[in-house]
């Protein structure tokens, strides 16, 4: 783990629900990233082999199109983007206008509106809050 300038805190510590949201979203992003790796590995071998065999003036075109797709997919997934919630970005990176974070934000907005209406999510949130409070209280008494 780095302790240099890239670890300077730039924001306030997130609340409990932001941390839970970011943890769930990160797990989903990890799954998608892993799935992409599993698929791209054999596809890259096939396309690279085809490009080597066929040659031609655009040698490697299929393989490099796959790499370009992978770069765009990585940017879309934005695996570690939520780190910017607390820490300064290490370097500015290109991000496509619409990505997985935008979809998650939209879904989160839908849940938030439903919660504000006092629906099921309000009761679920209260129940989870109580359980986490009890867990934290139990851990504090054991120290």
Task: Detail the topology: elements first, then pairings.
Layout: H1 16-54, H2 61-77, H3 100-116, H4 120-142
Helix pairs in contact: 1-2
* Number of beta-strand segments: 0
Q: Sheet with the most strands?
A: none
Distance between the termini: 27 Å
Structural class: mainly alpha
Enumerate the spans where pLDDT stays under 50 for 5 or more consecutive residues: none
What sort of overall outline do the alpha carbons produce when their principal axes are compared?
elongated
Question: Could you say how many structural domains there are in total?
Answer: 2
Overall pLDDT? 80
Account of the protein in words:
This protein is mainly α and about 140 residues long. The chain folds into two domains: about 1-95, no CATH class; about 95-143. Helix content is about 65%, strand content about 0%. It has four helices and no strands. The protein has helices at about 15-55, 60-75, 100-115, 120-140. α1 packs antiparallel against α2. The longest helix has about 40 residues, at about 15-55. It is elongated, with a radius of gyration of 21 Å. The mean pLDDT is about 80.
What would the keywords be for this entry?
4 helices; mainly alpha; 143 residues; single chain; elongated; 0% strand; 2 domains; 67% helix
Please outline what is shown here.
With 143 residues, this protein is mainly α.
């Amino acid at each position: 783990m780095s302790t240099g300038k890239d670890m300077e805190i730039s924001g306030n510590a997130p609340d409990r629900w932001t941390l839970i949201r970011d943890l769930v979203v990160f797990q989903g992003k990890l799954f998608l990233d892993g799935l992409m790796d599993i698929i791209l590995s054999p596809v890259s071998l096939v396309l690279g082999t085809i490009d080597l065999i066929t040659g031609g003036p655009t040698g490697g075109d299929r393989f490099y199109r796959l790499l370009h797709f992978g770069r765009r997919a990585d940017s879309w997934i934005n695996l570690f983007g939520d780190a910017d919630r607390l820490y300064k970005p290490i370097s500015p990176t290109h991000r496509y206008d619409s990505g997985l974070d935008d979809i998650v934000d939209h879904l989160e907005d839908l849940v938030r509106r439903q919660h504000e209406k006092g629906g099921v999510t309000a009761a679920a949130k209260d129940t989870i809050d109580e359980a986490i409070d009890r867990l934290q209280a139990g851990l504090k008494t054991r120290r």
